[in-house]
Write a structure and sequence with these properties.
Blueprint (H helix, E strand, L loop, with lengths): L1 H49 L6 E2 H12 L13 E2 L4 H6 L3 E6 L6 E5 L22 E3 L11 E5 L18 H6 L2 E6 L5 E10 L13 H13 L15 E7 L7 E8 L4
Length: 270
């Protein structure tokens, strides 16, 4: 009897172990396939963005295309031409109207379209084609308006273990990178922008580095002083309440719920 029970127990343990192994293998295979598909898709998107294009398009033409796709009525005021859309965004907008810019940091893997939804959840789990993907996308905080001057423009992205999305943001934990890779290129539909990094640090959500509203110039200046003081390394870049800043945020693994944050000041359109 004891022998039979022992055999049954052994069989059960082996069955559970086998099931666990199969689940792990299938889970890893799905993860690998998803990452593989994501890299291929991002490569295709980069080709669209960087290819030379002679076609100029303004926002009202983009709106016309989007209306044609969505079948929505058009108010006359919506057809008034506004800022021109840079040619390099034309094909991307045809692919996804949520694209609002492009983020690139030289000598890193950060080279992606930037999207914006009506919340800060959707593009955590969707790619540029709006397909479900655990890598998600780089996206702007829904509270930001890129068509107008904004004090704190916030970009989010995952820290993927395969080095994609905003994983390379962690390079700024190194003093050498902080001092030698200072420039961030964040191009919008209307024009190209350069930002210079002045702060990088690890924090958690209890520190409100993603503020978009400030009570006064003094309140904003205090915020700038606080985020600069938190930097792992000192910076000679001066930031004033008259400046606009760019905030990049991703997950860190220094401790539970940690975030790695980089702040940069807007310089000028090149």
């Amino acid at each position: 009897m004891r022998l039979m029970l022992a055999r049954l127990l052994r069989t059960g343990v082996l069955a559970v172990a086998a099931f666990g192994l199969i689940w792990s293998i299938s889970h890893l295979a799905a993860y690998w396939q998803e990452n593989h598909d994501s890299k291929l898709m991002n490569g295709e998107v980069r080709s669209l963005y960087y290819q030379d294009s002679a076609n100029a398009m303004n926002l009202n033409e983009v709106n016309k295309q989007l209306v044609a796709v969505n079948g929505l009525p058009v108010a006359p005021k919506d057809m008034v031409a506004v800022r021109p859309v840079q040619p390099k965004f034309v094909d991307l907008l045809k692919q996804n109207e949520d694209i609002v810019g492009w983020l690139h940091i030289a000598d890193t893997e950060i080279d992606y379209p930037v999207l914006q939804a009506k919340d800060n959840e959707y593009y955590l789990h969707h790619d540029v084609n709006k397909n479900t993907n655990r890598a998600g996308s780089i996206f702007v905080d829904y509270r930001n308006t890129l068509s107008a001057a904004t004090r704190n423009t916030i970009l989010y992205g995952h820290h993927m273990k395969n080095g994609t999305m905003l994983a390379d943001l962690l390079q700024y934990a190194s003093r050498w990178n902080f001092e030698n890779k200072k420039i961030i290129h964040f191009d919008t539909l209307a024009g190209d922008q350069q930002w210079i990094i002045f702060s990088a640090y690890t924090t958690d959500p209890t520190f409100d580095y993603i503020r978009t509203d400030f009570l006064s110039d003094e309140d904003y200046q205090q915020f700038l002083n606080d985020i600069k003081a938190k930097s792992r390394y000192p910076s000679a870049v001066e930031v004033k309440y008259t400046d606009s800043i760019l905030t990049l945020s991703t997950c860190a693994y220094a401790y539970p719920d940690a975030r790695f944050v980089v702040h940069a000041k807007l310089l000028a359109s090149p």
